[in-house]
Model the fold of this input.
Amino acid sequence: MMTFLKTRYHALLLMLAVIGPGLITAMVDNDAGGITTYSVAGAHFGYSMLWVVIPMVFVLIVVQEMCSRMGVVSGKGLSDLIRESYGAKVTFYLLIGLLLANMATIISEFSGVAGSLEIFGVPRYVSVPIAAVIVWVVITKGSYRSAEKIFLAAALIYFAYIISGFLAEPDWQAVGEAMVKPQIEFSTPYLMLLIGMIGTTITPWMQFYLQASVVEKGIKIENYKYTKIDVAVGAVIAGLVAFFIIVASAATLFKHGVVIEDASQAAMALEPLVGRFAEILFAIGLLNASILGAMIVPLATSFYICEGLGFEPGVNKTFKEAPWFYGIFTALIILGAIPALFPGTPLIKVMLTAQVVNGILLPPVLIFIVLLINKKWLMGEHVNKRWHNIVAWFTVVVLIALSAVLALSGLGVI
Amino acid sequence: MAFFSEIFFSTLIGKSVYTVDEKYYGNFRDFIVKKQNGNFLITKVRIRTSGGKRIIVPWSDIYSIEADPVSLKLKKQIHEIKPIDYDDDELRLKRDFLDQQIIDTENHRVVRVNDLKIVAVKDELFMVAADIGVRGLSRRLGFEGWILSFAQIFHKTIQNVLIPSKYIDPLPARIRHDITLTVAQDQLKNMHPADLADIMEDLDQFERMSMLQALPADIMSKTVAELDPSVREKLLGKLKDETIAKMLERLAPDAATDIVEELPKRRMHHLLNIMKAKEAEEIRELLKFKKDTAGSIMNTKFVALKGTLTVAEALDELRKKGEHAEHIYYLYIVDDEDILKGAVSLRDIIFADAKIQLGALIKRKPVYARLKEKLNSIVGKFTKYNLIVLPVVGHNKKLEGVITVDDVLPLLQESKNL
Done:
């Protein structure tokens, strides 16, 4: 009995040591763009989009499991591996694409900061510059490890959405039915939003970020099973948050026919229906998500660009040692914050652009992931199993189809 | 034969290969190289034939490399070409160098290769340098001319950043391709463990492991001792207990103790149990002392001699015992109960009369630290008396160990930075 308890205790300790990357990645997943998309989905289409959450979580787990496995086995970042296997040119253009896509994502994060703090009466001329400075200082002056702890603690704020979901007193029977009975509406706005939901949840930069943080943690292959749990739990929590945001907006805004354009409007619209408390919870959640995103997206972007192009990366280096890294990081924050200062910035358009560019980039990144993970010299015995490849390629094909539709519609073709 | 004098490797990749009778044969894929006196000699050429097959031909089959347009010409006709294989100690430029990370052994860092410079000497080609600069990167992307003319507007030139091939060591990562790289990594063995530790901190886990295995046991132990604790923690997590135990046995007890202290309690005890009893005992003794006291950083390998010995006898003793001591600049004079009586420098002994007794050479009362003395007070003694070594005494001034100046150097630096 004692030894049993001891091994259980030991396993728990190990798990705590390994956990983190998957959870954090999933948290950042529900950033300003994500929250906006989910609240618009609930407000405009009620419960009818809820069923998407389950396949979304499934796909998220499939893709992220591959990235984390690659990180554990190879000990290298994704852009490192792409550069070493496919050369400078491919890597360069891929990174340029990612840079543009992430630029748009960062703008939407800072717009999220502006929107959420305006609910508390803070003008964006004050909130956005302060947020930008905080982000810059935390990442450049603090250590990555303490930043990681802050991220994990901040993730608890996501429970705010779950609470506001209950406060909205939804019709649980209708919710249950919508989960198990998929219904697709064949209208352009519905399809667009559906693709947008997947596009904002499974983004290219996340795969780079997840793999880099798994490498940074130095997880051993014997403990990889805990990383799997980490990734799965993260994806499920991300799904839960999405679920409750949709439920909250569907139960209130959709019922009263309120049309919204972004998440802060959703928060404001909640007030007369379910009270000031729900509004505040929603706004705090959005603020946290936006700041988290504004920290991690520029960090991840400059990190993998430096890695892939052979510039010195690293938050623990000085500006002189890693000028490209700090240069790109700083430029991304400044260029991301400036557009958010203008009240006229069409948040929904910025986000849509970000989702379209991310959507175009997702297929090549996924193809690289699946190709790399099947390389015997790299992965050894940890290459994909047959069934794993079938699931992976199926996922890739579905996502390519969806991204193609999204990209075309975003460009105004459809 | 017509060869260029120098060329960048990337400009050759994918270029056409013709047979001696001017027929298109395939595309150039890669050069096979062999390390020879610090240079990488090109021995074979890898070609993708028009039929899609990848074959390797010896360098001697190449008639010329034309400049305009860039192309290769073989000495043979199609039916005369006999594909060969490459040897275990040969590397491939494209697969093992281009776009990969290498060790720059001159500057002790890991860098990514953007291009490779190739030079022709008579009939032979050599890879002479790795290009790691922005200009090399822009060449790969096809922007080189563009960027150079842009720079010219400001009357600037962008230089290639080259690492000469004698300072290049390929990374053991390529063992993933089943190549043993111990041959190619001879540079590493001559480097200082502290420099090796710097390099190792830049590497990924897999590469660290392979690099460690390529090093001689003695250097490997010292390198691990020099690593940043966070990197060491990750590395030790991957090593077997037996390997770590062997490594600890080779290190000075104080360095070994520093490493053992960072490990989880369970692993620490297990390691001490499987180590050789004598070395384990020394570490256990040192572990007893609180961190930041003289006892925790002292070294128990020192030379102590009785005051009744003559100088000649002392020198004899020293030759026998001194080999295992960290320093022999000072010999400590003790009585029959190992009580510290004084210190005599090696210099004093060498210049003294051979028949004189050691005790007579003691000039003044020795400076020492107590086992529980705090580090800042120890640092103070080192600076005040300009010491190289400081003896540590326990109960009744019994000599227990010595602290050498390199044990306190990092602390000196820290207190300066504050």
Observations:
- DSSP finds 18 helices and no strands in chain A.
- The CA atoms of residues 138 and 146 of chain A lie 9 Å apart.
- Residues 78-119 of chain A form the longest helix (42 residues).
